[in-house]
Amino acid sequence: MKTVISLKGITKIYGHGDAAFEALRGIDLEIRQGEFVAVMGPSGSGKSTLMNLLGCLDTPSFGNYSFEGIAVESLDSDQRSLLRRHALGFIFQGFNLLARTSALENVELPLLYRGYSRKERQRLAHEALASVGIADKWRNTPAELSGGQQQRVAIARALVTSPETLFADEPTGNLDSSTTEDIMDLLKNLNEQRQITILMVTHEAEVASEAKRIVTVRDGLIESDINTR
């Protein structure tokens, strides 16, 4: 399998002088196509900073980040935005759905930014909703959906552009244990059947155990990197 992500000596410093804080301290990490990686760590460990860098939402202070051969640290904000839009999918703990907009229209949004026709947007959005098991909920607004259904809409929105890499930030943080199982089963199926590379931040050991690999971050360094299967 090809290497999708390669980090070498990644350092992130916030602030200056006496107020400077080193959130990441020279991290090396490689992620291959089709892996399902959970990133764990206590509050303040640097895991969120790491995921922001991996998701091209921020840039390192020092070091090299290669995404599918592209030197991300050398891109400007517009170029990083294009990379996010065309190569990455994002799932968030808070779902981030538009409240007064139907499930279908929420899923269509990334395609709207890409300039797809209305007919094509609707076709692809219907397919994405069907792929996460809620084809019949396309007319419903978020207020008319359960937490699990809202997260499925959010996953459909992340999938509608067919990204090869999916970033999930505490995707089960707002869900009960039964719904958490359902969402993790869905993510595992997407990983195994479509070979989508998934990087997931979680503070829950039980959720992390569903991934194929667990990277633990502490004090800005990788404390452990374990293959679970």
Automatic annotation (TrEMBL):
It comes from the Bacteria. Keywords: ATP-binding, Nucleotide-binding, Transport. Residues 5-226 form the ABC transporter domain. The keyword NADP does not apply. Signal peptide: none annotated. InterPro entries: AAA+_ATPase (IPR003593), ABC_transporter-like_ATP-bd (IPR003439), ABC_transporter-like_CS (IPR017871), MacB-like_ATP-bd (IPR017911), P-loop_NTPase (IPR027417). Pfam families: ABC_tran. One of its GO terms (molecular function) is ATP binding. SMART domains: AAA. Belongs to the ABC transporter superfamily. This is ABC transporter ATP-binding protein.
